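Need residues for this backbone.
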């Protein structure tokens, strides 16, 4: 455990960024490792804590190797690092498939607690699945704790609705003001027309007397 903590601290302090070599492959692995480690908080993955720790240890060691390549890199060292990333990528993909499968199964079998734990793990693309998550929550809201992702979604929707309602009120008020302005113009035009007709009639009356 101490060894893993030490490796993590070294990897963190070496750089705020990920290693540049083979970044397209490495960045995905390094970006996901903290999320994969957080799987240990999910009941379903507790039997796999040792496997997760071993994988994390390998990722942090690879990260250190990646930084070292930026200083001095031989072709053999680069090939070794690339092969290391390819192996780690397979495990990364395994965890992604696993949690997405469990996400589907949790809804299929109404495992409410597992569902809540999974959607609050950042490995799941909750934004992509937002509608499905909200729909499932409303169908089972008595059994699901909304703390976390669901509350954030509900607050986001409430803000959007409030913004939309405000925009509707603004356009309705603007429309009303425009209609009142048009009405006022028409009334003024009508009044001028009546005045003009009255003046013409007076002129005609005066001429007829003459």
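Answer:
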């Amino acid at each position: 455990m101490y060894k893993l903590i030490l490796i993590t601290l070294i990897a963190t302090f070496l750089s705020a960024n990920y290693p540049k070599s083979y970044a397209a492959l490495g960045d995905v692995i390094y970006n996901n490792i903290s999320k994969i480690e957080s799987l240990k908080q999910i009941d379903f993955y507790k039997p796999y804590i040792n496997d997760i720790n071993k994988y994390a240890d390998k990722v942090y060691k690879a990260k250190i190797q990646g930084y070292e390549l930026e200083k001095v890199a031989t072709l053999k060292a680069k090939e070794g690092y690339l092969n290391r990333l390819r192996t780690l990528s397979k495990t990364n993909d395994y965890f992604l498939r696993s949690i997405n499968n469990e996400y589907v199964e949790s809804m299929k079998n109404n495992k409410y607690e597992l569902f809540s734990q999974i959607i609050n793990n950042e490995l799941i693309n909750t934004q992509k699945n937002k509608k499905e998550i909200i729909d499932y929550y409303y169908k089972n809201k008595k059994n699901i704790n909304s703390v976390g992702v669901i509350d954030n979604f509900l607050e986001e929707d409430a803000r959007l609705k409030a913004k939309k309602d405000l925009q509707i009120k603004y356009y309705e008020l603007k429309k009303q003001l425009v209609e009142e302005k048009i009405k006022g113009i028409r009334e003024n035009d009508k009044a001028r027309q009546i005045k003009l007709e009255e003046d013409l009639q007076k002129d005609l009356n005066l001429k007829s007397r003459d």
